[in-house]
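DM from R.C. (forwarded with permission)

"hey, sorry to bug you on a friday — could you get me a structure for this? deadline for the figure draft is monday and I only need the backbone to look sensible"
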Amino acid sequence: MNQGVDVTFTVSVNGTSPFTYQWKKNGADVPGATAKKLILNAVTTADAAIYRVAITNADGGILSGPATLTVIEPPAITGQPVGSTTLAPCGRL
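My reply, with the result:
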């Protein structure tokens, strides 16, 4: 994904409801991410990670497979071009 775009992860689940959801980023819980969808607004390179969701109901729980988010950073100029002057040879002496 390009930096600055919105990203949505969605999961589908079968079984007996109600379900609870907890999204994880590189294995750690994403605070407040407890819905069927995970929406990341204006992603940056800090959002690049492996995402999974833990789903539970009264009968147990399961962890989804991984979804990898790669964020592409646009090019940036880190140094401006520098002019130079070259003297042309001016004939024989």
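R.C.: lifesaver. The mean pLDDT is 93.
me: no worries. The beta strands are 7-10, 20-25, 28-29, 37-40, 49-57, 60-63, 67-69.
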